[in-house]
User: Fold this.
Amino acid sequence: MKGITRLVLLAAVLSSAVSIRIYRDNDSVRIETSIQNPETLLTQADALADAVEPCTDAPVPAAQAPAPLYRIRNSLGDAASQLGAYSSPEAAIQVCPPGYCVFDPDFNVLYTADGA
Assistant:
């Protein structure tokens, strides 16, 4: 992370340290550029990185896995018949109407309502 932070900050310092001026006279164009001393730029980027680093070294939390879903359908292959998806198997079973099934997250039949 340190290398990336320093590279980004160096780019920021460079963008503020480079100056480009374009002059147009009657039939000519003149371009002037100037840049600060490269050693000064690196020193500024290092100082900024040292100041920012404590803020960016915090561990990045891992993405949470989505909650498993229990789906209510007529049949596994009939996605259009799905009435809902619940994070709790008990909730899905409680509202499952006759003729429908509750499928677990791996699409195995968990429950079949009477009348199926």
